[in-house]
Amino acid sequence: MREQETESNDSSRPEFWDVRYACGETPWDFHGVPAALKAFLKESRPGTVLIPGCGAAYEVRAFHEAGWRIAAIDFSPVAVKRARSELGRLANCVVQGDFFTHDLGADRFDVIYERTFLCALPPELWPAYVNRMAQLLRPDGKLVGIFLYGEEKDPPPYPLSAEKASELFRQKFSLMKNVPVSDSLPIFQGNERWQEWVRTDGFSMSCTIDLESSI
Ligand SMILES: C[S@@+](CC[C@H](N)C(=O)[O-])C[C@H]1O[C@@H](n2cnc3c(N)ncnc32)[C@H](O)[C@@H]1O
Questions:
Q1: What is the mean pLDDT of the chain?
Q2: How far is 152 from 95, CA to CA, in rounded Å?
Q3: How far is CA 105 from the centre of its chain?
Q4: Is any ligand 1 atom within 6 A of the Cβ of residue 17?
Q5: Is residue 100 within 6 Å of ligand 1 at its C-beta?
Q6: What's the structural domain count of the chain?
Q7: Best substitution site from 10, 75, 124, 130 to test ligand 1's pocket, by max atoms within 8 Å of Cβ?
Q8: How far apart are alpha carbons 40 and 53 in whole angstroms?
Q9: Is the C-beta atom of 104 inside 6 A of ligand 1?
Q10: Helix or strand or coil: residue 96?
Q11: What CATH number did the domain enclosing 151 receive?
Q12: How far apart are CA 89 and CA 6, in angstroms?
C-alpha cells in the first residue's frame, strides 16, 4: 500500500534514488546515449531541451555537441553529483531540484527528453507528469524519448500500457512517432519504444498515430 511506504521504498522521494546511486545499484544506467536519440539529433534542428530525472545525464553532452541549449534536472543529490562529475565543463547544465516544483524559468522548452523517468514515478503522479510537461513545453513543443511498456510484478519501474498512455496524453499531446528501440538494456528488452509526443492542446493536429493499435 502506498500510504505505508517508507522513505527507502517510495520512488517519489529522493532518498529512494540516493541509496541506489550511492551503492551502484543502477540497473537502468545505459552508460551512454541510445541509438534512437543519436538519430533524432541528426535529423533535428537544435533548440532548447530539458532532461528531467536525468540521472548520470550522459545525454547532456550529446545534445550539447549537436548545438542544443540544455537544462537537466534531478532531485537526488547523489545523482546530481555523479552527473556533474561525468559532465566536466558541462556540469552547470544540471540542477538539483524536483521536476514538479523547481522554477525552471519563464522560457518554454522546444523539446523535453524522456528516458526511464516516467516509469520511475508511481502511477498516481503520471497525470501531474503530463500536466507539467505541457506547462514546460512551447505550444507545439515535443516530448521525445524512450518509454517503457509492458508489465512488472515488482515495480518500480512502472511500465505503461498503450491504453494508459492514450488516456494520459490525449488531452494535451498527439503521438507523431512510435517505433521499437533496438539497443535496450537486457532488463528493458522488447518493452521500450521511441516516441515523439507533440503538444497539441490549443491546436488541432491531423496526422496522429493510433497508439493502441500500433503496440
Ligand atoms: C530510473 S532513474 C533514470 C535516470 C536517467 N533518466 C537515465 O536514463 O539513466 C530515475 C531518475 O529520476 C529521478 N527523479 C525521480 N523523481 C524525480 C523528481 N520528482 N524530480 C527530479 N528527479 C526525479 C531520480 O532521482 C532518478 O535519478
A1: 93
A2: 31
A3: 19
A4: yes
A5: yes
A6: 1
A7: 75
A8: 20
A9: no
A10: strand
A11: 3.40.50.150
A12: 37
